[in-house]
Amino acid sequence: MTTLTQKTPATVSKATPKKSAFREWIDSIAFAVVAATLIRWLFFSAYMIPTPSMENSLLVGEYLFTSRLHYGATTPITPLQLPLSHQTIWGTSLPAYLDWIQLPQFRLPGFSSVQRGDVVVFHLPVEHPALYEKYGVVLPDLKPHPLDQRTHYIKRCVAIAGDRLELVDGQVLVNGKITGTPAGVQGEYFVATTTAVNETNVFRRNGITDFTAYTETYGDTAAANDEPGYLVKTTKEHIEMLKTYDFVRRISPVIHPGSIKESYLFQAVDTLRWNIDQYGPLLVPQKGLTVALTPANVAIYGEVIQCHEGNEGIDLAEGEIRQAGKRLKEYTFRQDYYFMMGDNRHNSADSRFWGFVPQDHVVGKAVFVWMSIDPDPVSFLKKIRWERLFKTID
After folding, report:
1. How far apart are CA 252 and CA 84, in angstroms?
2. Residue 34, Cβ neighbours under 10 Å: how many?
3. Which residues, 6 or more positions from 322, have their beta carbon under 8 angstroms from its beta carbon?
4. Among the residues of 213-350, which ranges form H helices?
5. Which of 193, 235, 243, 364 has its CA 20 to 30 A from that of 129?
6. In this structure, which long-range contacts are made by residues 220-227, counting pairs with CB atoms below 8 Å and at least 24 apart in sequence?
7. Radius of gyration of the chain from Cα atoms?
8. What are the residues whose beta carbons fall under 8 Å from the beta carbon of 296, sequence distance 6 or more?
9. DSSP helix/strand/coil, 346
10. 122 CB burial (10 A radius; 0-12, 13-18, 19+)
11. pLDDT tens digits, 276-323
C-alpha cells in the first residue's frame, strides 16, 4: 500500500529591514540616557559647589563625584520625573517631576555607614511641607518637595546617631572629647593692620577669598580706640602666613561669647542661649533610642517626631507632643540621624540652624573633585584650578 506524503512548501526567509540613520540615532540616545540614569542612581552622582559653606575644603565652582555605593543607593520615591534632572527642567523653573505617584523608599546595602568626619551629600530636610515656611527666614529659597526631590546639600558629619554634641568657643566636642579639626576648616579672624592693603596681592593670591575691610571698636566713642583691619575667614595655615607681613599688627579669632543668643538657630527657644560658637549639649537621635519628652526635649525633637518618623496626627504646642489628642510622655526613634556642619564655620547654614539630617535623606559620600573652576579668578590663566583636579575629599 502506497502512502502519499504532502510536501510542505519551503519556508521563505525574509531579510530584517535595516534601521534608518535617524532610528539608530534615537536608539543610541535612549540607551545612553538609560545607562546614565542607572549609573547616577546606583553608583555615582555629580554635583557642583555653589556656595562657600565648605571652604577651604571645597571651593565654589568645584565639580565633584559622590559615591552612592558607600551608604547604599535609595530607590526613587517619585518615578514620574524627567531623566537626569532634579526638581526643575534644565535652564527653566518648570518642575521636572510629577508627584501623582509616590512610592515607599528602600535603601540598598552599602559597604559603610556615615562616619564622623565624612563629607556627605544629603537632601535638605527642612523642605518638608510642614517646615519650609518656618526655615525660610534662614534659607529664603526653600520650597516643599517630596523627599527624593529636595535640594542637595553637602556638609561634614560632626556627630552620628547616639552622640552627645557640644560646641565650646567654636570647638566641636563629641561625647565630651574634642574632635580633630580637618585641614580645610575655616575660622573667622580679625586682622589688625597698620594700613590698607592690596587685597588681591595679600588675600586672593594666597587663597583667601572671604574678607571684609572692618574697623573694630572697643565699646566707647573715642576714635583713637578704633582699630582698622579686616575680617577674614580662612584656615589656620593661612593665618600663620599673614603673620609674616610687617603691616599686620595682630590677629585674633572671632568667637561669639556665651552671653550672645542667636535668634535663628535650631532650636530658638528662650531657655537655650546658644550661638554658632557656644551650642548644645544635645543628643543626636538614634534608632531604638527612647527619650522622655520634657519641654526642653520637645523643642529639640518635636519636628523630628512630627515630620521625619512616619507618624500621623502629631501636633506640637506649649512644650508638648500630642498624637491624636493624646500627650506623648516618651518616644522611641525609628531611624538614625546626623549632625552636619560646614567647614566654613562662620558662613554655613547647617544643622546648627535647621537641625538633624535623617538617615533616609542621606544621598552619598563625596569622594573626589573632577573639575575646579574659579568664578572670580585673579587672571584668565588661573580660571581652572589645575592643582585641585582629581583631588580626593578628606
Report:
1. 47
2. 11
3. 314, 315, 316, 328
4. 236-242, 295-307
5. 364
6. 227/192
7. 27
8. 271, 272
9. coil
10. buried
11. 999 989 999 999 999 999 888 898 999 999 999 999 999 998 889 999
340 bridge partner residues? 157
Decide whether 30-163+284-289+333-392 matches 187-253 in CATH topology: no
SS3 label, residue 169? coil
- Quick one: 324 exposed, middle or buried, by C-beta within 10 A (0-12, 13-18, 19+)? exposed
In CATH terms, 30-163+284-289+333-392 corresponds, of 1.10.860.10, 2.10.109.10, 3.40.640.10, 3.40.50.300, to: 2.10.109.10
248, 192 Cβ separation under 8 angstroms: yes
Domain ranges in the chain are 30-163+284-289+333-392, 187-253
CA distance 235 to 69: 31
Query: Architecture of domain 187-253 in CATH?
Result: 2-Layer Sandwich (3.30)
pLDDT digits (tens, 9 = 90+) for 71-84: 999 999 999 999 88
Rounded Cα gap, residues 197 and 280, in angstroms: 39
The reported pTM is 0.90
- pLDDT for the residue numbered 376: 85
Spatial CA neighbour of 166 closest among 156, 157, 175: 175
Instruction: Report residue 393: phi and psi, to 5°.
Output: -105, 120
Are 375 and 61 a contacting pair, CB within 8 Å? yes
d(CA 149, CA 33): 19
What DSSP assignment string belongs to 285-304?
Answer: P-TT-EEE--HHHHHHHHHH
Rounded to whole angstroms, how far apart are CA atoms 191 and 273?
28
The type of residue at 313 is: G
136 C-beta neighbours (distance < 10 Å), count: 13
Query: How close are the terminal C-alpha atoms of the chain, in Å?
Result: 92
DSSP string of 106-143, one letter each residue:
-B---S----TT-EEEEE-GGGSTTTTTGGGGTSTT--
Residue 220 Cα distances to 33, 225, 256, angstroms = 65, 8, 20
Residue 115 near residue 157 (C-beta atoms within 8 A): yes
Backbone phi and psi for residue 298, each to the nearest 5 degrees, phi listed first:
-60, -35
